[in-house]
Amino acid sequence: MITKVVHGWRVGGLLAYLMGPGRAQEHVRPRVIASWDGQDAGRQPQQNEEGRLELGPLIRTLRAPAVAAGLRENDEDGKRGYVWHCSARVAAGDQELSDGQWASIARELLDGSGVASAGDAGGPRWVAIRHADDHIHIAAVLVRQDTSRRFWPSHDYPRLRETARRIERRLGLTVTASADGTAAKAPGRGELEKAQRQGRPPARLELARAVQAASAAASELTGFVAGLEANGYLVELRRAPSGDPLGYKVARPGEVGADGGPVFYSGSKLAPDLSLPRLMRAWEESGRGSDAVDPVAAARRRVDGARAVVGAARRGDNAEGPDGLAQATRDVLTAVGEWSDELGSAAKRFDRSARPPHGRHRQSGQASAGLRRVARQLLRRRRLLDVQDDAGAAAVALVVSLAALLEEIGAWQQERDRVHQAAAARDVAHQLGLWVAEKATAAPEPIAIRDHVPTVIGQRHRHTAMRGPGQPQD
User: Fold this and answer.
1) So what's the pLDDT on residue 235?
2) pLDDT tens by residue, 250-260
3) How far is CA 449 from the centre of its chain?
4) Same domain flag for 302 and 239
5) CA nearest 403: which of 432, 444, 380, 366?
6) What residues of the chain score a pLDDT lower than 50?
7) Are 50 and 62 within one domain?
8) What is the Rg, in whole angstroms, of the alpha carbon atoms belonging to the chain?
9) Domain limits for position 301
10) φ, ψ at 281 (rounded to 5°)
11) CB 33 within 8 A of CB 107
């Protein structure tokens, strides 16, 4: 069950939308199924002679505590709105729930999130509305009835997510992941609309990818800044009075704000693991060691070694933490992503799987440092991939090893109920397997990776990767 919360100021506008036909007539028989006072369907607005719902009485009743508190229906100096709007949706393929079941779910979500505790007669007023088979909406006014005081529920988002997971298990619905803080901050509506007008990707997404690539290619701050500036990005450092670097911010050329100046994003706002302290720690870890004569072969050895370490961790051995290895693996994927658009897309999709839950510090060691070092070497010696020579075959074999490592990382994450990260790792492993199958088939001689093709490629692609170019399709 996916839950989403937004705040606003106009409960009337929200109810008009939820009880109306929708933007594309998608709202079918909109109706109130639950309310704060137990009247539930009794709170359903009546139809007038024109067949329209008379929403005025319900809107005035819901707003009454806010009116008593003297609250306006517009933004107060940028403060968060007191209208709490939650949507809850089940997964495609889940059973269709009745209005009564959804009413119980609404109450459980409100109680679990701390918005409206069960049995609290003086709590806020709210209604749950249904206009589709697979989801409901809850509109609550965050003002207590007994004191007319506005309030903010504490940690309502993560509490709501955990409550939804309890409901999923009880009703046999698709179990979704807990809120783990690994999702990168998504572009806001304004950013998306601006990008659409400009005809290019949102600046936040482009900058996050640019920073990841520059950090993987660099070994220290000066090289990192130089790499970004060489690609046309604007970079500013924040320093302490002593001159020590504290942070950085980056902007895309031509991206200006209302004041006409560049729109900068700090690293930590692009993604939790792109803050300057974390980047500098990674550079320090990867700086121990020497360059390899053959970076592709060195990278494959490092990847195979990392896979063994993750496997040992799954067996309970006292091995290096897989969280650090997952993050270092992203650097290798970033480097390999320079070889083709397909591999570049795979590197982007792995991004979430590389982040530890709740932003906690990852345990790194020699294997992680080795992966970062070979990633940097691969980026420095990038070239077009040609599977018709030995170097190209070695590169394909490296991607095979990466797919196997991702499968191991995904299994480790799945065992820890990290659904989002595990799914990302498995999906990227499969994508790498498809790429390997295509490249192996294009070679004039079968690429000698028979013993290394991972199960993620699947039986069909396993056969494809091992046959010669003249052999028939399965």
Assistant:
1) 94
2) 999 988 888 88
3) 33
4) no
5) 432
6) 384, 386-388, 446-474
7) yes
8) 27
9) 287-466
10) -65, -40
11) no
